[in-house]
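tool_call: predict_structure(chain=1)
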Amino acid sequence: MAWEKIVKRIGVGCCPECQSLGFDYQEGANPHDDERAAVLCPNCGWKGMLGQMRIIPEPGTNGASQKMSDMKRTSLIALLVRLVGFTLGGAVLGFAAMLIGTSFLGGVQGGIHSDWTLVVLLGILVCFALGGVAGAKGATRLVKSWRS
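tool_result:
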């Protein structure tokens, strides 16, 4: 089974002598040898191990990875607001569907033991899900309106 090495770029290697960015591998060096790979500074000619070089953030990134800066982060408060909104919206609409469904089942022959019970249960579950989604969206909009 093949495997793939995943690497997160945290910065650029910097020569400890002249502080120039980048490096070259020495002849015969194994680039996969991590910190023990033999490197050469193209600017001043310093030779040493990769582990001896300093790591500095890439110029223009302020130390943040480009992919991390492009990602949208969800705050804990926004997550909790959506969770509470989903719970309340789902409970309200699900309870309303349950009241309507049980009153409907009271009027059919066989009551809660009739064939319509599964249809009512499915309706309650769908109403709970729709109410939850609507509640989460409504709670998010409410919080956004408070913040602006």
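agent: The first helix runs from residue 66 to 70. Proceeding to next step.
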